[in-house]
Specification:
The complex is a heterodimer of chains A (306) and B (507). By secondary structure, chain A is mainly alpha-helical. Chain A folds into 2 domains: 1-81 and 270-306, no CATH class; 88-266, MetI-like fold (Orthogonal Bundle). Helices cover 79% and strands 0% of the residues of chain A. Chain A has 14 helices and no strands. In chain A, helix 1 packs antiparallel against helix 13. Chain A is flat, with a radius of gyration of 24 Å. Chain A starts with a helix and ends with a helix. By secondary structure, chain B is α+β, with helices and mostly antiparallel strands. Chain B has helices at 2-15, 53-59, 107-116, 122-128, 151-158, 167-180, 225-234, 245-253, 285-294, 297-305, 333-342, 361-373, 385-393, 411-418, 431-440, 446-462; strands spanning 27-32, 64-67, 70-74, 77-82, 88-93, 129-136, 139-144, 188-194, 198-203, 216-221, 239-240, 258-272, 349-357, 376-383, 400-404, 466-478, 482-484, 503-504. In chain B, the strands form 4 sheets. In chain B, strands 8-9-10-1-11-16-12-15-13-14 form a 10-stranded mixed β-sheet, sandwiched between helices. In chain B, strands 4-5-7-6 form a 4-stranded antiparallel β-sheet. A two-stranded antiparallel sheet of chain B has the order 2-3. In chain B, helix 9 (285-294) packs antiparallel against helix 11 (333-342). The longest helix of chain B has 17 residues, at 446-462. Chain B is globular and about 75 Å long. The chains are: A mainly alpha (306), B alpha+beta (507). At the A-B interface, helix 2, helix 3, helix 7 and helix 12 of A face helix 4, helix 7, helix 13 and helix 14 of B.
Chain lengths: 306, 507
């Protein structure tokens, strides 16, 4: 077990290293931030000074070395645009992202799980078809479009909800819906397929043969077992929601990490992009690591197989 | 008897209580299109873009700055004068001005603000200033190493060096502390900020020009254009910045909302990058003239910015010092075709590629369609902004380039960047233009300098170096509560200003 855990941690550290290397070089391929920090027509001298100020005039490998050295000290550097420490910026946005992701997750589970169960129990009937259409729309409608429609309907026409920003419970409703729908659809599909698998298993057949009421068979025997993969996926999705709600946060002017990433990309703010991607990646890697270890604890075959 | 009444009336007039100026009240909220950062609180870090001036006009004040009706209005400086030899500039400071923390503003603060300035064009400024003297608390003297006719342009409009910060406070809290809790001498005090999300200011009633009428200013960053419009419609914002095309039309149609365009110092043009290549069709002046006659600028302006942009026929903003007004080109496709035929292209020709910044591909598409209509076949090459300006500056493009600039300065600084040989965005040069440019650099007589700069612009027009497209109108909107938005009060300024002039309607 110890060997398994050490190996998994090793893979995680390697993944993080590769991520840092990739993001460091990829952001630099996208262009020169000095051009975006000055007006077109700025003198070559001004552009040179900006590059010098941010250390962009040094060879790439020296820049990477300095970046990694600071990273190991927990220093993500200063934002080119904000001129403040990136970690400070990230942490000021994180609570908003956690709130939005939490609300979107609650929404996605409240919608996704019941519809998934009903679709599985009423398989190939009209309720199942409605569920499939719901899932198809959730997975295929772009969230910016859903967001704009929500704003138009609930803010402009009905005047029920604030159009943007954060601060009250009313502010979180529309972004949570726009973000959560995609995940609700994913959770619905997984619940449905997982339930179908469990409903066809021997122990459910036995429960039915024993004459247990159908509601009890579904709720106690089938649902409990079908829930495990759904919750695993929900855990990973929660981390994804925290870090990649770029479009939803931008449309609703929600002050989260996703919007920070958008701003970083818009201004070629390398330290901001690097920090948001690495911290987001680290969260996903850590969650996966924990899940892997928990699986290995629960199921000995996993740790013995690997 | 009448004398008695006169005396009585005068006595009453003197003794009657003077009505106190109304205390500031209410909140005005902006939906801002771009990200506002703590760096925008510090004039020392002014980048070469207009965004921070949105904050400076509230929080800070300058010795001399653009104001309504006066591009170089005395503000913290009551007056200033230049010596005859052009080597010394004397500023007399306004008496009794205080920073928000109660400290008096003195000559030492002016000197300190200049010395700590490290923003755009800092090197140009500092290389030319030999020393700054403060003979007393109310006077500042700049000594230059040699005459520099553009000193006031750079000190008062093109940089943030003339915006004054309190020396003692900055020294006490440091640069980072200043960005967290900035103190200035402007009409509004800093209250709070959430970087990139929101800034709140409150009226500073002791502001020297006048006490502001609106109590609180709130700037909310809303990146999406449709969401900004929704916020205006719902009354969550009173003023929104940058609404374009169909959404601007929607704003105009909505009862209670007002469209507030502001023409900014950002002309757009087509640059004929191949005009120096004898093998290129663009080498022929008649072809370049044909392109100019092919463009229906009025129609493009109407379609893209509802007719609010300005057609000025120049690459230099019409508000800049030394601007020369070129004569217009008539929209005449027949004339364009005739010119092409005379140049040897009766059936038109393949004009190559048309490079542009993707953000303004709408303008490029419209221009390109008009060129195609007369037989100039061009392919659009939109590039992301950074890549576009990098390629433009590194001279990697050919054929046609859609140029634009919102940089500060005057006609000379724009000509240097876009016309004179060796300029950042110049693909070739003309010796007569270069000679005239060199001649005006140290010319201290403004009248003579103006003549030379006008002559250069005339030659640029005669040589048909560019095809002007428009001077961009930045389209904003105001809600029903706003009596005075401040938009368009200062020529060429994109945002609301001066903030002390803003007014909300009475309830």
């Amino acid at each position: 077990m110890k060997k398994f855990v050490v190996r998994r941690i090793g893979y995680s550290v390697l993944s993080l290293l590769l991520l840092s290397l990739t993001i460091f070089f990829f952001v630099r391929v996208t262009g020169d931030p000095a051009v975006l920090l000055a007006e077109p027509g700025a003198s070559a001298e001004d552009l040179r000074i900006i590059r010098e100020q941010f250390g962009l005039d040094r060879p790439l490998w020296i820049q990477y070395g300095a970046f990694m050295e600071n990273l190991l000290k927990g220093d993500f550097g200063k934002s080119f645009y904000y001129r403040t420490p990136v970690l400070e910026l990230y942490l000021s946005r994180l609570p908003h992202s956690l709130l939005l992701a939490g609300a979107a997750m609650v929404f996605s589970l409240l919608i996704g799980i019941p519809t998934g169960i009903i679709a599985a129990v009423r398989v190939n009937r009209w309720w199942d078809s409605i569920g499939k259409v719901f899932a198809l729309l959730g997975l295929s409608l772009p969230s910016f479009w859903v967001g704009l429609l929500l704003i138009l309907f609930f803010s402009v026409y009905l005047e029920w909800l604030p159009s943007s920003g954060a601060g009250t419970a009313w502010h979180v409703i529309m972004p949570a819906f726009a973000l959560g729908w995609y995940f609700a659809a994913a959770h619905m599909r997984l619940t449905r397929s997982s339930m179908l698998e469990v409903l066809g298993s021997e122990y459910v057949k036995l429960a039915r043969l024993k004459g247990l009421p159908e509601a009890l068979v579904i709720a106690k025997h089938a649902f409990k077992n079908a829930l495990i993969p759904v919750l695993t996926l929900a855990g990973i999705n929660l981390v994804i929601m925290v870090n990649v709600a770029v479009v939803v946060e931008t449309v609703f002017a929600w002050p989260g990490v996703g919007r920070l990433l958008f701003e970083g990309i818009s201004f070629r703010d390398f330290p901001v992009v690097q920090a948001t991607v690495i911290l987001g990646g680290a969260m996903i890697i850590v969650v996966n690591l924990v899940v892997d270890i928990l699986y290995a604890v629960i199921d000995p075959r996993i740790r013995l197989e690997r | 008897m009448p004398r008695f009444f006169l005396v009585a009336a005068l006595t009453l007039a003197v003794l009657a209580p003077v009505p106190a100026p109304a205390a500031p009240e209410g909140t005005m909220t902006w939906a801002v299109h771009t990200t506002l950062a703590p760096t925008n609180f510090d004039p020392a870090e002014t980048p070469g873009i207009i965004t921070p001036f949105m904050v400076y006009y509230a929080l800070h004040d300058a010795l001399v700055k653009p104001m309504p009706g006066n591009p170089r209005a005395p503000s913290l400086a009551e007056s200033w004068s230049a010596s005859k030899d052009g080597l010394t500039y004397d500023f007399v400071l306004r008496k009794g001005v205080k920073f928000h923390n109660g400290e008096p503003l003195t000559a030492e603060d002016v000197k300190f603000s200049f010395e700590r300035y490290r923003g755009t064009s800092a090197k140009i400024l500092k290389d030319r200033v030999a020393s700054i003297e403060t003979p007393d608390a109310g006077r500042v003297r700049f000594r230059l190493k040699q005459p520099w006719p553009d000193f006031m342009t750079f000190y008062s409009t093109a940089t943030g060096a003339g915006w004054i910060v309190p020396r003692k406070y900055v020294e006490k809290v440091g640069d980072d502390g200043f960005k967290k809790a900035p103190v200035g001498a402007g009409p509004y005090k800093f209250v709070s900020t959430q970087p990139g999300v929101e800034i709140v200011f409150e009226a500073f009633e002791q502001y020297w020009r006048k006490a502001p009428s609106v109590k609180r200013l709130v700037f909310k960053v809303i990146p999406d254009e449709s969401t900004r419009l929704a916020a205006l419609k719902r009354g969550e914002a009173d003023i929104v910045y940058s609404i374009r095309g169909a959404l601007a039309e929607e704003l105009r149609r909505t009862p209670g909302l007002t469209l507030k365009p502001a023409v900014i110092q950002a002309p757009f043009w087509i640059y004929f990058a191949d005009q120096w290549d004898p093998k290129s069709p663009w080498h022929d002046k008649r072809v370049r003239l044909a392109a100019n006659h092919a463009l229906d600028r009025t129609a493009i302006n109407q379609a893209e910015t509802l007719g609010f942009s300005k057609i000025t026929w120049s690459i230099i903003p019409s508000t800049f010092d030394f601007f020369w007004q070129p004569p217009p080109y008539r929209y005449d496709p027949q004339q364009a075709k005739k010119l092409l035929a005379e140049a040897g292209y009766p059936n038109g020709f393949d004009g190559g590629e048309y490079f542009c910044d993707t953000a303004y591909a709408n303008l490029a598409e419209a221009a390109l369609n008009y060129l195609q209509a007369v037989g100039i076949r061009v392919r659009l090459r939109p590039l992301e902004r950074a890549a576009f300006f990098k390629g433009f500056g590194e001279k990697k493009f050919k054929n046609l380039i859609q140029g634009a600039s919102g940089a500060f300065g005057n006609a000379a600084t724009r000509l240097e960047a876009f016309v004179v040989t060796g300029g950042t965005y110049v693909y070739g040069g003309y010796p007569d233009l270069d000679g005239l440019f060199a001649e005006q650099v140290n010319e201290t007589n403004p009248r003579v300098r103006q003549q030379i700069l006008h002559k250069i612009q005339q030659l640029v027009h005669d040589k048909v170096m560019f095809a002007h497209l428009w001077e961009l109108a930045f389209i904003n909107g105001a809600g029903p509560r706003v009596a005075e938005s401040g938009l368009g009060l200062i020529a060429g300024h994109a945002y609301s200003a001066p903030y002390e002039d803003l007014k909300l309607k009475a309830k």
